[in-house]
Write a structure and sequence with these properties.
single chain; two-stranded antiparallel sheet; rod-shaped
Protein backbone atom coordinates (compact mmCIF):
# COMPACT_ATOMS: atom_id res chain seq x y z
CA UNK A 1 0.00 0.00 0.00
CA UNK A 2 1.41 3.38 -1.01
CA UNK A 3 2.14 6.13 1.46
CA UNK A 4 -0.07 9.17 1.63
CA UNK A 5 1.38 12.49 0.57
CA UNK A 6 1.58 13.61 4.21
CA UNK A 7 3.42 10.46 5.21
CA UNK A 8 5.78 10.84 2.26
CA UNK A 9 6.60 14.46 3.02
CA UNK A 10 7.30 13.63 6.67
CA UNK A 11 9.76 10.92 5.59
CA UNK A 12 11.50 13.18 3.05
CA UNK A 13 12.05 15.87 5.67
CA UNK A 14 14.34 13.46 7.50
CA UNK A 15 16.59 12.96 4.45
CA UNK A 16 19.38 15.19 3.12
CA UNK A 17 18.18 17.51 0.32
CA UNK A 18 20.14 15.66 -2.33
CA UNK A 19 18.38 12.41 -1.50
CA UNK A 20 14.82 13.74 -1.49
CA UNK A 21 12.22 12.80 -4.23
CA UNK A 22 8.81 14.19 -5.18
CA UNK A 23 5.63 12.36 -4.25
CA UNK A 24 4.77 11.92 -7.94
CA UNK A 25 8.06 10.17 -8.65
CA UNK A 26 7.36 7.92 -5.71
CA UNK A 27 3.91 7.00 -7.01
CA UNK A 28 5.26 6.23 -10.48
CA UNK A 29 7.75 3.87 -8.98
CA UNK A 30 4.95 2.03 -7.21
CA UNK A 31 3.28 1.00 -10.46
CA UNK A 32 3.80 -2.69 -11.30
CA UNK A 33 6.49 -3.43 -13.92
CA UNK A 34 5.52 -5.94 -16.52
CA UNK A 35 7.54 -9.14 -16.82
CA UNK A 36 9.91 -8.13 -14.04
CA UNK A 37 12.69 -10.62 -13.37
CA UNK A 38 13.08 -11.60 -9.73
CA UNK A 39 16.33 -10.34 -8.21
CA UNK A 40 19.05 -12.92 -7.64
CA UNK A 41 19.95 -13.58 -4.04
CA UNK A 42 22.97 -11.60 -2.75
CA UNK A 43 26.24 -13.59 -2.68
CA UNK A 44 27.51 -14.70 0.71
CA UNK A 45 30.32 -12.60 2.20
CA UNK A 46 33.77 -14.20 1.74
CA UNK A 47 35.44 -15.77 4.78
CA UNK A 48 38.22 -13.55 6.18
CA UNK A 49 40.87 -13.91 8.86
CA UNK A 50 40.21 -12.29 12.18
CA UNK A 51 41.88 -8.88 11.94
CA UNK A 52 44.63 -7.97 14.40
CA UNK A 53 43.21 -4.51 14.82
CA UNK A 54 39.73 -3.25 15.56
CA UNK A 55 38.00 -1.42 12.69
CA UNK A 56 34.92 0.78 12.91
CA UNK A 57 32.17 1.09 10.27
CA UNK A 58 31.41 4.26 8.31
CA UNK A 59 28.00 2.97 7.16
CA UNK A 60 25.55 5.84 6.77
CA UNK A 61 21.84 5.72 6.98
CA UNK A 62 20.19 4.47 3.84
CA UNK A 63 22.92 2.09 2.73
CA UNK A 64 21.40 -1.27 2.08
CA UNK A 65 24.53 -3.26 1.17
CA UNK A 66 27.80 -3.82 3.06
CA UNK A 67 31.05 -2.93 1.29
CA UNK A 68 33.33 -5.87 0.68
CA UNK A 69 35.94 -6.38 3.45
CA UNK A 70 39.46 -6.88 2.13
CA UNK A 71 41.75 -8.71 4.58
CA UNK A 72 45.31 -7.26 4.92
CA UNK A 73 48.11 -9.28 3.42
CA UNK A 74 49.80 -11.66 5.85
CA UNK A 75 52.90 -9.80 7.12
CA UNK A 76 56.24 -11.54 6.76
CA UNK A 77 58.60 -9.12 8.58
CA UNK A 78 58.53 -5.94 10.59
CA UNK A 79 55.69 -4.65 12.72
CA UNK A 80 52.14 -4.41 11.42
CA UNK A 81 51.39 -0.85 10.37
CA UNK A 82 49.30 0.76 13.02
CA UNK A 83 49.83 -2.11 15.45
CA UNK A 84 51.85 -1.01 18.46
CA UNK A 85 52.21 -3.88 20.93
CA UNK A 86 53.38 -3.31 24.47
CA UNK A 87 56.83 -4.83 25.13
CA UNK A 88 57.47 -5.34 28.83
CA UNK A 89 61.14 -5.53 29.88
CA UNK A 90 62.42 -6.55 33.32
CA UNK A 91 63.21 -3.87 35.88
CA UNK A 92 66.80 -2.51 35.48
CA UNK A 93 69.29 -3.94 37.96
CA UNK A 94 72.47 -2.62 39.53
CA UNK A 95 75.46 -4.45 38.08
CA UNK A 96 77.24 -6.34 40.86
CA UNK A 97 80.66 -4.88 41.65
CA UNK A 98 80.32 -1.82 39.42
CA UNK A 99 80.07 1.13 41.76
CA UNK A 100 77.20 3.32 40.72
CA UNK A 101 76.71 1.43 37.45
CA UNK A 102 73.00 0.99 36.74
CA UNK A 103 72.63 -0.79 33.47
CA UNK A 104 69.67 -1.21 31.17
CA UNK A 105 68.27 -4.71 31.34
CA UNK A 106 68.81 -7.56 28.96
CA UNK A 107 65.73 -8.80 27.08
CA UNK A 108 65.14 -12.48 27.70
CA UNK A 109 67.07 -14.75 25.42
CA UNK A 110 70.24 -12.64 25.08
CA UNK A 111 73.04 -15.19 24.97
CA UNK A 112 76.66 -15.70 23.90
CA UNK A 113 78.16 -12.69 25.68
CA UNK A 114 81.80 -13.29 24.77
CA UNK A 115 83.12 -9.81 25.49
CA UNK A 116 81.89 -6.47 26.66
CA UNK A 117 82.56 -3.44 24.51
CA UNK A 118 80.64 -0.92 26.56
CA UNK A 119 77.33 -0.21 28.16
CA UNK A 120 75.69 0.12 24.76
CA UNK A 121 75.92 -3.51 23.72
CA UNK A 122 77.48 -6.92 24.14
CA UNK A 123 79.61 -8.15 21.28
CA UNK A 124 78.26 -11.42 19.96
CA UNK A 125 74.94 -11.28 21.82
CA UNK A 126 71.91 -12.72 20.04
CA UNK A 127 68.24 -11.83 20.57
CA UNK A 128 65.05 -13.89 20.53
CA UNK A 129 62.95 -10.90 19.44
CA UNK A 130 59.96 -12.23 17.55
CA UNK A 131 57.47 -10.76 15.13
CA UNK A 132 55.17 -8.33 16.81
CA UNK A 133 57.77 -6.84 19.19
CA UNK A 134 58.75 -4.07 16.84
CA UNK A 135 62.33 -3.17 15.97
CA UNK A 136 65.01 -4.36 18.41
CA UNK A 137 65.78 -1.59 20.88
CA UNK A 138 69.23 -0.01 20.84
CA UNK A 139 71.42 0.58 23.89
CA UNK A 140 69.77 -2.07 26.03
CA UNK A 141 72.31 -4.87 25.91
CA UNK A 142 74.37 -5.05 29.10
CA UNK A 143 76.01 -7.77 31.09
CA UNK A 144 73.69 -10.00 33.06
CA UNK A 145 74.35 -10.25 36.78
CA UNK A 146 77.01 -12.85 37.52
CA UNK A 147 78.54 -12.75 34.03
CA UNK A 148 81.39 -15.15 33.39
CA UNK A 149 83.70 -15.38 30.46
CA UNK A 150 83.94 -11.67 29.78
CA UNK A 151 87.16 -10.90 27.92
CA UNK A 152 87.39 -7.19 28.66
CA UNK A 153 86.28 -4.50 31.11
CA UNK A 154 82.99 -2.66 30.90
CA UNK A 155 83.70 0.85 29.68
CA UNK A 156 82.20 3.46 31.94
CA UNK A 157 81.98 1.25 35.04
CA UNK A 158 83.96 2.61 37.97
CA UNK A 159 84.93 -0.75 39.39
CA UNK A 160 85.53 -4.35 38.29
CA UNK A 161 82.62 -6.73 37.77
CA UNK A 162 82.58 -9.37 40.48
CA UNK A 163 82.87 -12.84 39.06
CA UNK A 164 84.04 -11.79 35.60
CA UNK A 165 87.41 -13.12 34.51
CA UNK A 166 90.04 -10.74 33.18
CA UNK A 167 88.16 -7.59 34.10
CA UNK A 168 91.25 -5.61 35.24
CA UNK A 169 93.36 -4.57 32.28
CA UNK A 170 96.57 -2.56 32.60
CA UNK A 171 96.11 0.33 30.21
CA UNK A 172 99.32 0.61 28.21
CA UNK A 173 99.81 4.37 28.47
CA UNK A 174 98.92 4.49 32.17
CA UNK A 175 101.29 1.61 32.87
CA UNK A 176 104.13 3.41 31.10
CA UNK A 177 103.48 6.64 32.96
CA UNK A 178 103.59 4.83 36.31
CA UNK A 179 106.73 2.91 35.35
CA UNK A 180 108.46 6.15 34.35
CA UNK A 181 108.38 7.20 38.01
CA UNK A 182 110.50 4.16 38.86
CA UNK A 183 112.69 3.80 35.79
CA UNK A 184 112.83 7.23 34.16
CA UNK A 185 111.24 8.50 30.96
CA UNK A 186 113.98 7.11 28.73
CA UNK A 187 113.09 3.51 29.54
CA UNK A 188 109.32 3.42 29.13
CA UNK A 189 109.36 2.85 25.37
CA UNK A 190 111.84 -0.02 25.47
CA UNK A 191 110.64 -3.50 24.43
CA UNK A 192 111.12 -4.92 27.93
CA UNK A 193 108.27 -2.71 29.22
CA UNK A 194 105.71 -4.72 27.23
CA UNK A 195 107.29 -7.94 28.51
CA UNK A 196 106.84 -6.77 32.08
CA UNK A 197 103.28 -5.61 31.45
CA UNK A 198 102.35 -9.02 30.02
CA UNK A 199 103.81 -10.81 33.05
CA UNK A 200 101.96 -8.57 35.51
CA UNK A 201 98.72 -8.92 33.54
CA UNK A 202 99.06 -12.70 33.74
CA UNK A 203 99.12 -12.63 37.54
CA UNK A 204 96.18 -10.19 37.60
CA UNK A 205 94.17 -12.53 35.38
CA UNK A 206 94.64 -15.32 37.94
CA UNK A 207 93.29 -13.23 40.80
CA UNK A 208 96.19 -11.15 42.19
CA UNK A 209 95.80 -7.46 42.86
CA UNK A 210 98.09 -5.05 41.01
CA UNK A 211 100.61 -4.60 43.87
CA UNK A 212 100.95 -8.34 44.49
CA UNK A 213 101.11 -9.06 40.77
CA UNK A 214 103.96 -6.56 40.36
CA UNK A 215 106.02 -8.16 43.16
CA UNK A 216 105.42 -11.62 41.70
CA UNK A 217 106.30 -10.35 38.24
CA UNK A 218 109.68 -9.09 39.48
CA UNK A 219 110.68 -12.59 40.51
CA UNK A 220 109.09 -14.17 37.44
CA UNK A 221 111.00 -11.80 35.16
CA UNK A 222 114.31 -12.71 36.78
CA UNK A 223 113.57 -16.43 36.57
CA UNK A 224 112.69 -16.18 32.86
CA UNK A 225 115.38 -13.67 31.92
CA UNK A 226 112.89 -10.99 30.89
CA UNK A 227 112.55 -7.27 31.64
CA UNK A 228 116.20 -7.20 32.72
CA UNK A 229 116.27 -3.44 33.34
CA UNK A 230 113.40 -3.78 35.82
CA UNK A 231 115.18 -6.66 37.58
CA UNK A 232 118.42 -4.64 37.81
CA UNK A 233 116.52 -1.65 39.20
CA UNK A 234 115.54 -3.70 42.26
CA UNK A 235 118.66 -5.84 42.52
CA UNK A 236 118.99 -5.01 46.23
CA UNK A 237 115.75 -6.90 46.92
CA UNK A 238 117.25 -10.06 45.46
CA UNK A 239 120.46 -9.60 47.47
CA UNK A 240 118.43 -9.41 50.65
CA UNK A 241 116.39 -12.43 49.55
CA UNK A 242 119.60 -14.42 49.02
CA UNK A 243 120.83 -13.49 52.48
CA UNK A 244 117.50 -14.46 53.99
CA UNK A 245 117.65 -17.79 52.17
CA UNK A 246 121.13 -18.30 53.61
CA UNK A 247 119.78 -17.97 57.14
CA UNK A 248 120.46 -14.33 57.97
CA UNK A 249 117.80 -12.38 59.84
CA UNK A 250 117.15 -9.72 57.22
CA UNK A 251 113.92 -8.14 56.02
CA UNK A 252 113.04 -8.41 52.34
CA UNK A 253 110.91 -5.41 51.33
CA UNK A 254 108.21 -5.21 48.70
CA UNK A 255 108.77 -2.95 45.70
CA UNK A 256 106.59 -0.24 47.25
CA UNK A 257 108.45 -0.37 50.58
CA UNK A 258 111.81 -0.34 48.81
CA UNK A 259 110.93 2.76 46.77
CA UNK A 260 109.67 4.50 49.91
CA UNK A 261 112.97 3.70 51.66
CA UNK A 262 114.91 5.17 48.75
CA UNK A 263 112.96 8.40 49.02
CA UNK A 264 113.43 8.64 52.79
CA UNK A 265 117.18 7.98 52.56
CA UNK A 266 117.45 10.66 49.91
CA UNK A 267 115.71 13.13 52.22
CA UNK A 268 118.16 12.35 55.04
CA UNK A 269 121.21 12.78 52.83
CA UNK A 270 119.97 16.01 51.28
CA UNK A 271 119.22 17.43 54.74
CA UNK A 272 122.95 17.33 55.67
CA UNK A 273 124.20 18.54 52.30
CA UNK A 274 124.98 15.10 50.85
CA UNK A 275 122.59 15.28 47.90
CA UNK A 276 125.22 13.81 45.58
CA UNK A 277 124.75 10.50 47.41
CA UNK A 278 120.94 10.56 47.05
CA UNK A 279 120.88 8.22 44.04
CA UNK A 280 119.30 4.87 43.25
CA UNK A 281 122.72 3.25 42.88
CA UNK A 282 123.94 4.40 46.28
CA UNK A 283 120.67 3.35 47.91
CA UNK A 284 121.10 -0.09 46.32
CA UNK A 285 124.51 -0.42 48.04
CA UNK A 286 123.25 0.85 51.39
CA UNK A 287 120.20 -1.43 51.47
CA UNK A 288 121.48 -4.45 49.55
CA UNK A 289 125.23 -4.66 50.21
CA UNK A 290 125.52 -3.09 53.66
CA UNK A 291 122.04 -4.24 54.83
CA UNK A 292 121.28 -0.88 56.37
CA UNK A 293 117.65 0.09 56.94
CA UNK A 294 116.41 3.65 56.62
CA UNK A 295 116.36 4.04 60.41
CA UNK A 296 119.90 2.66 60.63
CA UNK A 297 121.13 4.97 57.89
CA UNK A 298 119.43 7.92 59.58
CA UNK A 299 121.13 7.09 62.89
CA UNK A 300 124.50 6.85 61.15
CA UNK A 301 124.06 10.28 59.66
CA UNK A 302 122.59 11.90 62.78
CA UNK A 303 124.80 10.33 65.45
CA UNK A 304 128.03 9.43 63.69
CA UNK A 305 128.47 11.56 60.61
CA UNK A 306 127.36 14.74 62.35
CA UNK A 307 129.68 13.97 65.29
CA UNK A 308 132.63 13.70 62.90
CA UNK A 309 131.52 16.61 60.78
CA UNK A 310 131.15 18.95 63.75
CA UNK A 311 134.18 17.76 65.78
CA UNK A 312 137.18 19.99 66.51
CA UNK A 313 140.10 19.50 64.20
CA UNK A 314 142.12 17.39 66.64
CA UNK A 315 139.18 15.09 67.32
CA UNK A 316 138.18 14.88 63.66
CA UNK A 317 141.64 13.61 62.77
CA UNK A 318 141.33 10.89 65.39
CA UNK A 319 137.77 10.01 64.32
CA UNK A 320 138.78 9.50 60.73
CA UNK A 321 140.51 6.33 61.86
CA UNK A 322 137.08 4.65 61.90
CA UNK A 323 135.70 6.52 58.87
CA UNK A 324 138.64 7.32 56.61
CA UNK A 325 137.99 10.00 54.03
CA UNK A 326 139.31 13.29 52.84
CA UNK A 327 135.93 14.99 52.53
CA UNK A 328 132.42 14.84 53.92
CA UNK A 329 131.04 12.68 51.13
CA UNK A 330 133.74 10.02 51.43
CA UNK A 331 133.30 9.92 55.23
CA UNK A 332 129.53 9.44 54.87
CA UNK A 333 130.07 6.81 52.20
CA UNK A 334 132.46 4.92 54.49
CA UNK A 335 129.97 5.03 57.35
CA UNK A 336 126.90 4.02 55.36
CA UNK A 337 128.57 1.24 53.39
CA UNK A 338 130.62 -0.15 56.29
CA UNK A 339 129.66 -3.38 57.96
CA UNK A 340 129.21 -1.86 61.41
CA UNK A 341 125.90 -0.45 62.49
CA UNK A 342 125.04 2.88 63.99
CA UNK A 343 125.16 1.73 67.63
CA UNK A 344 128.62 0.22 67.32
CA UNK A 345 129.97 3.22 65.45
CA UNK A 346 128.45 5.63 67.95
CA UNK A 347 130.30 3.82 70.75
CA UNK A 348 133.51 4.05 68.77
CA UNK A 349 132.96 7.74 68.16
CA UNK A 350 132.48 8.42 71.88
CA UNK A 351 135.42 6.22 72.87
CA UNK A 352 137.77 7.94 70.47
CA UNK A 353 136.44 11.25 71.75
CA UNK A 354 137.70 10.39 75.25
CA UNK A 355 141.08 9.22 73.99
CA UNK A 356 141.42 12.39 71.95
CA UNK A 357 140.42 14.65 74.87
CA UNK A 358 142.99 12.98 77.12
CA UNK A 359 145.69 13.29 74.48
CA UNK A 360 145.00 16.97 74.07
CA UNK A 361 145.83 17.45 77.83
CA UNK A 362 148.96 15.29 77.75
CA UNK A 363 147.30 12.23 79.25
CA UNK A 364 147.54 8.86 77.54
CA UNK A 365 144.66 6.41 78.01
CA UNK A 366 143.74 3.21 76.22
CA UNK A 367 140.52 2.52 74.26
CA UNK A 368 139.10 0.48 77.16
CA UNK A 369 139.36 3.42 79.55
CA UNK A 370 137.91 5.71 76.92
CA UNK A 371 134.99 3.30 76.40
CA UNK A 372 134.27 3.21 80.15
CA UNK A 373 134.22 6.99 80.38
CA UNK A 374 132.00 7.24 77.30
CA UNK A 375 129.61 4.68 78.78
CA UNK A 376 129.38 6.91 81.87
CA UNK A 377 128.07 9.74 79.71
CA UNK A 378 131.26 11.70 79.16
CA UNK A 379 131.74 13.54 75.89
CA UNK A 380 134.75 15.16 74.30
CA UNK A 381 133.71 18.55 75.63
CA UNK A 382 133.03 17.50 79.22
CA UNK A 383 136.27 15.53 79.50
CA UNK A 384 138.76 18.22 78.46
CA UNK A 385 138.83 20.03 81.83
CA UNK A 386 138.77 16.81 83.82
CA UNK A 387 141.79 15.42 82.02
CA UNK A 388 143.64 18.64 82.87
CA UNK A 389 143.07 17.77 86.56
CA UNK A 390 144.27 14.20 85.96
CA UNK A 391 147.45 15.62 84.45
CA UNK A 392 148.11 17.68 87.60
CA UNK A 393 147.62 14.59 89.77
CA UNK A 394 150.45 12.76 87.97
CA UNK A 395 152.91 14.55 90.31
CA UNK A 396 151.10 12.90 93.20
CA UNK A 397 152.23 9.53 91.89
CA UNK A 398 155.87 10.53 92.50
CA UNK A 399 155.08 11.98 95.93
CA UNK A 400 153.16 8.86 96.82
CA UNK A 401 156.15 6.67 96.09
CA UNK A 402 158.21 8.80 98.47
CA UNK A 403 155.69 8.01 101.21
CA UNK A 404 155.22 4.38 100.16
CA UNK A 405 151.75 5.19 98.79
CA UNK A 406 150.94 3.57 95.45
CA UNK A 407 148.85 6.10 93.54
CA UNK A 408 148.01 5.15 89.93
CA UNK A 409 146.65 7.00 86.89
CA UNK A 410 143.49 4.92 87.10
CA UNK A 411 142.96 6.25 90.65
CA UNK A 412 143.55 9.80 89.48
CA UNK A 413 140.91 9.33 86.78
CA UNK A 414 138.53 7.61 89.23
CA UNK A 415 138.85 10.47 91.68
CA UNK A 416 138.35 13.13 89.01
CA UNK A 417 135.57 11.57 86.97
CA UNK A 418 133.78 9.45 89.55
CA UNK A 419 134.66 10.95 92.97
CA UNK A 420 136.01 7.55 94.08
CA UNK A 421 136.36 7.55 97.89
CA UNK A 422 139.44 5.29 98.07
CA UNK A 423 141.26 7.35 95.48
CA UNK A 424 140.28 10.58 97.24
CA UNK A 425 141.67 9.20 100.53
CA UNK A 426 145.06 8.45 98.92
CA UNK A 427 145.21 11.96 97.53
CA UNK A 428 144.48 13.35 101.01
CA UNK A 429 147.29 11.28 102.58
CA UNK A 430 149.78 12.26 99.86
CA UNK A 431 148.98 15.92 100.41
CA UNK A 432 149.40 15.52 104.16
CA UNK A 433 152.74 13.69 103.84
CA UNK A 434 153.99 16.32 101.43
CA UNK A 435 153.03 19.09 103.80
CA UNK A 436 154.81 17.41 106.73
CA UNK A 437 157.89 16.78 104.66
CA UNK A 438 158.20 20.35 103.50
CA UNK A 439 157.56 21.63 107.03
CA UNK A 440 160.33 19.49 108.53
CA UNK A 441 162.88 20.36 105.85
CA UNK A 442 162.41 24.12 105.74
CA UNK A 443 161.08 24.91 109.22
CA UNK A 444 158.18 26.71 107.60
CA UNK A 445 154.84 26.88 109.26
CA UNK A 446 152.38 24.18 108.40
CA UNK A 447 150.04 26.80 107.12
CA UNK A 448 152.66 27.83 104.58
CA UNK A 449 153.35 24.22 103.66
CA UNK A 450 149.70 23.49 103.09
CA UNK A 451 149.59 26.02 100.22
CA UNK A 452 152.49 24.27 98.55
CA UNK A 453 151.14 20.83 99.14
CA UNK A 454 147.90 21.76 97.45
CA UNK A 455 149.69 21.95 94.13
CA UNK A 456 149.52 18.21 93.63
Amino acid sequence: MALTRTQWNTLQAKLPPEDRESYETYLAAQAPTPEATPAAPAPAAPAVATPTQTTTSNFTYGQNTAPAYVAPATPTSGPVSGFEPTVTLPTPVVQAGASGFVGPVVPSGVTSATGITGASGITGATSNFTYGQGNPLSNVFVTPVGITGATGPINGATGPIVGASGVVTLAKDTFKSTLALLMGESEVNQPWVDELRDIIQGFINTGSDVATATNLALREAKAKGKASKFVQRFDAIFKLQDRLNAGETVQVPSIADYVKSEQELGDVLRAVGLGDLATQEFAKKVFGDANKSVSEATALISNVFNAIDNAPKALKEDLQKIAPGIDRTSIARALLLGKEGADALTKQINTIGQVSAAKSQGVAIDMGTGADLAAGGETYGTSLGKFATVKNLERGQQLGRMSNINFTQEEAIASTFQSNAAADEKIRKIKEEEANRFSAQSGRLKSQSRSTAGQI
